[in-house]
User: Fold this.
Amino acid sequence: MTVSPTTSPAEAAQAAQLDARSRELRRHIVRAISAAKRGHVGSSLSLVEILRVLYDDVIRHRPAEPDWPGRDRCILSKGHGCLALYAILSDKGFFPASELDSFCAPDGILGGHPEKSKVPGVEASTGSLGHGLSIGIGQAIAARYARQPYRVFVIIGDGESNEGSIWEAALSAAKHRLENLTVLVDYNKHQSYASTREVLDLEPLSDKWRAFGFAAKDIDGHNVSGLRAALTALPLERGKPSALVCHTVKGKGIPFAESNMEWHHKNRVTDEETAALYKALEGR
Assistant:
């Protein structure tokens, strides 16, 4: 598919090719899956470029000092996508990459949902969907009262956007004019058992965020340069929180897993399936 100026964000996300860094981060995810023989595969793969650009180009952080007061905060509210977060945190040196080999192990620190008390770099324990945005709003308000320049980024899922708590929080963020807060929606158009259109249609999603008082923008969630341009130009509008609706592909980078609900969460991943995951990432 050729990407043109008239290509929709969803079509562009489908067509985006992965560079070497994106493939390597996905191999970190597969490494953890191969160790545990399970995991939220599709939900993690759609997040890789979002997290990559945040940690490579946007967020101020110190891996050797994960609780540095001046750091920007990044909350993965869709906590089941934690494999992507673990991949980038290990890549940055928050913890050794060898921890990926203990994913979901009784003696490991990396569980099926991220835990702040266990994993360096995790800003909030998430997994019960709909909570992360409220936590992020509290942090953004705290920054204002403390007169601190740090920013707060909250990544939510599209299935998670069914939660009423998301929209109650959005109203509060707009009321407080939190321009230091950015919501990124991983809009891969699928949730746990079907498409978002079938389960509970979110469209028009960007207009909903605008109606709730945010400045909102649609973007290809796999286009690294586009993400970088948007995230380094925040806030989208002065005096308002920002919302980036990131059009992504569930399972991105693994053709047989893309938009395939069998790979939302995979139990008992076989050695053959692991080999197929690695092979799919060769040069794609």
Summary: The radius of gyration is 18 Å. The longest strand covers residues 181-187. Strands lie at 73-76, 152-157, 181-187, 215-220, 242-247. The mean pLDDT is 94.
